[in-house]
Amino acid sequence: MANASIHSIGLFIDGQYYYRLDKALQENKSVRVKLEGVIDFIERTLSAKYGLDRETCIVTETHFFRGRLNAFDAKARNQLLEDRKFEDRLIKNDVILHYKHVYYLPDGTPHEKGIDVWLALEAYELALYRDFDFIVIITGDADYEMLARKIKSLKKPAILLSWHYDDQNPTAKDLREEISFQININALLENNPGLLNRITEPASK
Fold first, then answer.
1. Could you give the CA distance from residue 38 to residue 11 in angstroms, rounded to a whole number?
2. What is 20-83 written as a DSSP string?
3. Spatial strand order in the sheet of 57-68
4. Cα–chain-centroid distance for residue 149?
5. How far is residue 196's CA from residue 205's CA, in Å, rounded to a whole number?
6. Residues ≥6 apart with Cβ < 8 Å to 128
7. pTM of the model
């Protein structure tokens, strides 16, 4: 382990996946993701699974990757304040933000280019140099299958946290088969509905 007293967890968040989840929770349940609650749940889950002291199992870095409209486009779409409020919640939890500007396709739809590659490269590099004991990825995208494989080649567990925002977005089969294990929030909520109160907060807060 990296340190005799601390078992370090690196958390990497697919920002678009997380944002869509957050919006769906607000629209359907009038709650939003409580990131500090999710982090605490990750720490407790890993300490229990690996037989570690809860107090030594700590998310030491959280990285968030997403495409973002530039300020003028966000203002023109009345989205600037919403984006800033969303970011404020991440900053409150000491999240390291990684953004690239979204560009528009000819049909007018926004497009994120290279965010998944950036997340994968950053996660692998930091797994090498930060010497995390565990890597946790919040996503459902099959594009991260090879990242999970490379993390495991470093003799570190590659852990997936999935929390689907609708029934049309199951976790990709190829990714499920490659990870060390999955924290499936949807399945856990079926057996423990009280968990929702620990990992969400009122949307109006």
1. 11
2. HHHHHHHHHHSEEE-HHHHHHHHHHHHHHHTT--GGGEEEEEEEEEEEE--HHHHHHTT-HHHH
3. 96-101, 57-68, 7-14, 134-138, 158-162, 181-184
4. 18
5. 16
6. 154
7. 0.91
Structure token digits, residue 22: 């957050």
pLDDT digits (tens, 9 = 90+) for 87-98: 999 999 999 999
- The type of residue at 20 is R
Query: What's the rounded Cα separation, in Å, for the pair 124 and 119?
Result: 8
* CA pair distance 79, 72, nearest whole angstrom: 10
Q: Which of 102, 140, 159, 175 is nearest to 24 (CA)?
A: 140
List all residues 6 or more positions away from 108 whose beta carbon is below 8 Å from its beta carbon. Answer: none
| Residue in 115, 8, 99 with CA at minimum distance from that of residue 61 | 8
Terminal C-alpha separation, the chain = 39
Least confident of 64-68, 139-143, 144-148, 170-174: 170-174
Domain 7-135+152-202 CATH class label: alpha beta
Total residue length of the chain: 205
Structure tokens, 50: 């690996």
